[in-house]
Design the sequence.
């Protein structure tokens, strides 16, 4: 566990270093400035180096009035209230702030219109308009977008007048803070911010397709589809929040649709993260808790879809409080789960760390939305990016572990195959040894038994002493018993042959393969090999080793008597059997030996053991076939045997 924590700490340190370097290269130093009595003094700012964040606090506010620059120039207007621009008590009004700036320079102002509609005047001129503020709901067109505007003040003071109207939501018009800096530097910074959001959204969309593909190939892993959809929703949320890139790309999207999408993204993310955490850690939540969270999300989503923004937006503070509670509960439960389970796999530890980051970042974002209090390094976009990277690393670790397990399984399989082959070879050797021993000892034992009985009878007839006759009878009895034991061993060998693994064999392939291997031996004896196999030869029922042994034995016998001659192999189907014949043009078998060629120990020469044909006969008959030998002295020999055609696995055929 300690090693896992060290590895994760190194991983996080590398990521944080990358974020730090990126921010150091791209960010312009920010000076935060809070106006006093509607005035912000920026004369001491080095705009060649810094940008200023002018907070929406202590501005002049004129409630229920939309004063133009001409109205202020003519002395019209009520006494202003010095107030915060966020949460104005009226449906519409005018905010004014005066900036003290060095004249003659070109500045850029960059900010966001909040929630509904806004109109901005700079030094008496209309700079921009988002939506159309009015004094009633009917006269107001809602809109929401980021803005960027360049201006060059001709005096030391710059007047900014904001008309705002909010008849369509219940959560206030937001705070009208903005950035101001040298135009070229701020333009670069604004583009960098847009680029960063685009990159983040693109990465989230790529993550969506990646995890969607993972789910398609592993449908049992529902955590993949939950995380994939969460990435897609988060990408859409980034594109419709703050910089409003999605609105810029598709300007015809109605304000109500974009606003509802912002709210729906919150409810869907809470539901999906709950399902995702529950899938990764099945015992994390109680069923009642999961059901309550999903029911609340479904109910609020239905309200968002079926009602107007002025109605459903009033419930968002309560839902945000519910989200904070869920995030805190999830964080506590995840921590307890981490302590109790003590996961041994590094991938599990990393996944747990990733979801903890998401839970903490969710709380941080909600606190920022409500109270403008947050930790900049723990915002949800960075937490999502970190979680995605953690997931990728965890998947890579799981893949490496699976590859290792697969490799070990393959090695084990190969080892088992080798052991099985060794056991089969040992079994065959044992079987052959039993057959050979039984055959080779049977005849000597029969001779011993006969002579012992003969001597016993002869001595008894001549009147030998009783003890000698008794001892000879014991020798005869024990020798006979040993002969019976050898007979049983021979029978056991035949039973093993008959109980061998019979399977479907491609007779053509086995014949050709065996002939090819034996062709070199025949070539040394200057013997030609002729093969004639029917094209439609069906598969046979036999053991592969036994079938090969039969062919080898018969080819070996043929080669002995066909030096400088010809050996032929033919195969064809006959009445549900496959008939195979091996012939030679040698000297043939004598008429006296021909009836006994399949007996054990019977051989046509002094070199052989007399076991080859008898073993072939036992194997062929155990497979359900037959064998015969025809020969004419001086004209050669033909051994013909049959094997049953494969009938689908009936071993009794």
Sequence:
């Amino acid at each position: 566990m300690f090693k896992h924590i060290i590895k994760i700490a190194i991983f996080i340190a590398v990521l944080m270093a990358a974020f730090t370097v990126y921010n150091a290269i791209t960010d312009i130093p920010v000076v935060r400035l809070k106006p006093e009595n509607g005035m912000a003094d920026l004369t001491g700012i080095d705009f060649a180096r810094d940008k200023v964040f002018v907070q929406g606090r202590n501005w002049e506010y004129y409630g229920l009035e939309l004063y133009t620059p001409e109205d202020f120039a003519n002395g019209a207007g009520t006494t202003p209230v010095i107030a915060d621009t966020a949460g104005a008590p009226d449906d519409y009004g005018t905010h004014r702030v005066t900036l003290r700036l060095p004249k003659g320079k070109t500045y850029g102002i960059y900010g966001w219109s909040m929630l509904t509609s806004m109109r901005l005047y700079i030094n008496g001129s209309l700079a921009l308009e988002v939506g159309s503020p009015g004094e009633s709901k009917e006269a107001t067109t809602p809109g929401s977008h980021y803005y960027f505007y360049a201006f060059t003040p001709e005096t030391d003071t710059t007047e900014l007048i904001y008309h705002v109207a909010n008849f369509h939501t219940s959560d206030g018009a937001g705070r009208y803070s903005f950035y101001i800096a040298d135009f070229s530097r701020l333009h670069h910074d604004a583009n960098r911010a847009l680029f960063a959001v685009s990159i983040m959204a693109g990465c989230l969309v790529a993550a969506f397709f990646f995890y969607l593909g993972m789910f398609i190939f592993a449908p049992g892993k529902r955590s993949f589809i939950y995380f994939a959809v969460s990435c897609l929703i988060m990408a859409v949320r980034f594109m419709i929040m703050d910089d409003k890139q999605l609105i810029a790309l598709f300007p015809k999207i109605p304000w109500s649709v974009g606003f509802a999408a912002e709210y729906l993204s919150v409810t869907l993310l809470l539901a999906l993260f709950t399902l995702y955490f529950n899938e990764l850690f099945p015992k994390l939540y109680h069923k009642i808790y999961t059901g309550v969270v999903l029911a609340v999300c479904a109910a609020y989503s239905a309200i968002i879809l079926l009602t107007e923004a002025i109605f459903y937006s009033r419930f968002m503070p309560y839902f945000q409080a519910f989200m904070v509670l869920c995030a805190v509960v999830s964080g506590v439960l995840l921590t307890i789960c981490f302590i109790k389970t003590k996961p041994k796999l590094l991938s599990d530890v990393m996944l747990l760390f990733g979801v903890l980051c998401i839970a903490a970042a969710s709380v941080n974002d909600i606190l920022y939305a409500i109270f403008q209090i947050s930790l900049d390094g723990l915002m949800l976009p960075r937490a999502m990016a970190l979680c995605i990277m953690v997931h990728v690393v965890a998947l890579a670790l799981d893949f490496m572990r699976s590859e290792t397990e697969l490799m070990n399984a393959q090695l084990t399989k190969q080892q088992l195959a080798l052991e099985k082959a060794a056991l089969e070879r040992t079994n065959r050797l044992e079987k052959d040894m039993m057959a050979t021993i039984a055959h080779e000892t049977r005849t000597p034992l029969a001779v011993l038994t006969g002579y012992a009985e003969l001597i016993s009878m002869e001595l008894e007839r001549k009147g030998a002493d009783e003890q000698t006759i008794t001892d000879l009878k014991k020798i005869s009895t024990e020798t006979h018993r040993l002969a019976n034991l050898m007979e049983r061993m021979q029978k056991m060998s035949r039973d093993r042959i008959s109980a061998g693994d019979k399977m479907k064999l491609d007779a053509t392939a086995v014949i050709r393969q065996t002939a090819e291997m034996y062709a070199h031996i025949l070539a040394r004896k200057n013997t030609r090999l002729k093969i004639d196999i029917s094209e439609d030869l069906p598969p046979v029922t036999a053991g592969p080793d036994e079938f090969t042994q039969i062919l080898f034995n018969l080819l070996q016998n043929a080669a002995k008597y066909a030096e400088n001659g010809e050996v032929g192999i033919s195969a064809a189907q006959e009445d549900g059997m496959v008939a195979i014949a091996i012939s030679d043009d040698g000297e043939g078998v004598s008429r006296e030996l021909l009836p006994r060629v399949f007996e054990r120990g019977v051989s046509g020469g002094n070199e052989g053991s007399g076991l080859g044909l008898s073993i072939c006969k036992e194997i062929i008959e155990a497979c359900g076939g037959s064998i015969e030998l025809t020969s004419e002295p001086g004209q050669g020999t033909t051994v013909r045997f049959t094997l049953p055609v494969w009938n689908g696995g009936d071993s009794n055929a």
User: Anything to note?
Assistant: The chain is about 55% helix and 15% strand. Residues 579 and 642 are 4 Å apart (CA to CA). The mean pLDDT is 80.
